[in-house]
């Protein structure tokens, strides 16, 4: 891999597929280094230049090709040997290039740039094989291979009177980019719909709200440090401390019990005493059953925490209840 990175251009393959490009690169490089005379037969170049040329050629050859010509020390002799071996690439490449030119169609490519690359590659191969293609032939090839649905566009481009293939390609690429932008804007939202505003547009446009946010530690959307909103009560919108959240739930449960409509006359739920229709003897039985519960209720109301009772308290309550019954 280190040797590949130091190469000036790709090495000559053993099949000779890149012989055309390789010879062109070698000739241009030797001209820049003033070593072109070393490739001519019976040249009088100094031994130092010949050594540089032969080292460069061997470095840019496939390993198998290098082994075949390892005994040659003259760059001109090596150059002629490679030419005799791979110069027949013109006869090999010509049938394939003609077939590619025959099957080349503009409608077979999704992108204009891909079609342009294929066209220039085939034209270059045909030119190397001695079959150059003119600009008019390239333009006509493009016009005749448009898709049948684009026959109107084909006539429009033909009437523009382009003289060079590159001018037509630039126009086609520009039209392709504009069509992509048109489809992107069309699919962004339904026809007739307005553009969505940004999420933070309201916060930016409201200076009062923006000035109140992030003012001090822990005061965003709060009225003091350590306070939180109680989401259970949607109607009151009161602020409750975190440590009082559990007490708030208990008090809410008690208030819910108090708000229940309980009749103190019969003990039933769903109506008040002034509309109670329960028979009198049933109401009397209910009141007698509630007589022994008053003391317990008073204890829970006046004492917080645990209350300690003695056995005598229960005995007295039982005696009083029995006496009242007699």
Question: Quick gist of this model?
Answer:
With 326 residues, the chain is an all-alpha fold. The chain is 56% helix and 1% strand. Among the domains are: 2-87, no CATH class; 91-187; 262-290, no CATH class.
Task: Please describe the topology of this protein.
Blueprint: H1 2-5, H2 19-32, H3 47-59, H4 63-68, H5 75-86, H6 89-103, H7 112-128, H8 135-144, H9 151-159, H10 165-187, H11 201-205, H12 207-212, E1 228-229, E2 239-240, H13 245-259, H14 280-289, H15 294-302, H16 311-325
Antiparallel strand pairs: 1-2
Helix pairs in contact: 6-7
Task: State the major sheet.
Answer: 2 strands, antiparallel
Percent of residues in helices: 55-70%
Low-confidence parts:
210-214, 218-222, 233-238, 296-309
Average residue pLDDT:
76
Structure summary, number of beta strands: 2
**How much beta, percentage-wise?**
under 5%
Measured between the Cα atoms of the first and last residue, the distance is 115 Å
What's the helix-strand series? HHHHHHHHHHHHEEHHHH
Shape descriptor? elongated
The largest beta-sheet arranges its strands as 1-2
Summing up helix and strand content along with how strands pair, one would put the structural category as: mainly alpha
The radius of gyration computed from the alpha-carbon positions, rounded to a whole number of angstroms, is 50 Å
So how many helices? Answer: 16
What features would you describe in this structure?
- The chain has 326 residues and is mainly α.
- Among the domains are: 2-87, no CATH class; 91-187; 262-290, no CATH class.
- Helix content is 56%, strand content 1%.
- It has helices at residues 2-5, 19-32, 47-59, 63-68, 75-86, 89-103, 112-128, 135-144, 151-159, 165-187, 201-205, 207-212, 245-259, 280-289, 294-302, 311-325, and strands spanning 228-229, 239-240.
- A two-stranded antiparallel ribbon has the order 1-2.
- The model is unreliable at 210-214, 218-222, 233-238 and 296-309 (pLDDT under 50).
């Amino acid at each position: 891999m280190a040797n590949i990175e130091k190469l000036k251009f790709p090495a000559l393959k053993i099949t000779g597929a890149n012989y055309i490009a390789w010879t062109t690169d070698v000739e241009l490089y030797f001209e820049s280094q003033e070593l072109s005379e070393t490739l001519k037969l019976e040249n009088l170049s100094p031994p130092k230049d010949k050594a540089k040329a032969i080292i460069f050629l061997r470095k840019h050859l496939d390993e198998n090709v290098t082994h075949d010509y390892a005994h040659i020390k003259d760059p001109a002799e090596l150059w002629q040997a490679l030419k005799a071996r791979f110069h027949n690439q013109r006869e090999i490449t010509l049938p394939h290039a003609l077939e590619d030119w025959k099957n080349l169609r503009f409608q077979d490519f999704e992108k204009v740039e891909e079609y342009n690359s294929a066209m220039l590659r085939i034209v270059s191969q045909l030119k190397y094989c001695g079959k150059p293609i003119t600009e008019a032939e390239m333009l006509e090839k493009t016009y005749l291979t448009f898709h049948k649905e684009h026959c109107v566009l084909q006539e429009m481009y033909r009437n523009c009177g382009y003289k060079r293939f590159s001018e037509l390609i630039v126009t086609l690429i520009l039209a392709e980019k504009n069509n992509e932008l048109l489809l992107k804007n069309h699919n962004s939202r339904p026809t007739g719909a307005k553009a969505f505003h940004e999420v933070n547009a309201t916060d930016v446009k409201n200076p009062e709200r923006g000035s109140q946010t992030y003012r001090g530690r822990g005061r965003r959307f709060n009225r003091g440090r350590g306070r939180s909103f109680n989401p259970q009560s949607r109607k009151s919108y009161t602020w409750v401390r975190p440590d009082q959240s559990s007490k708030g739930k208990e008090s809410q449960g008690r208030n819910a019990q108090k708000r229940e409509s309980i009749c103190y006359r019969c003990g039933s739920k769903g109506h008040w005493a002034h509309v109670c229709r329960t028979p009198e003897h049933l109401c009397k039985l209910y009141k007698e059953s509630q007589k022994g519960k008053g003391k317990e209720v008073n204890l829970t109301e006046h004492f917080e925490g645990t209350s300690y009772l003695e056995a005598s308290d229960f005995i007295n309550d039982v005696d009083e209840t029995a006496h009242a019954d007699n």
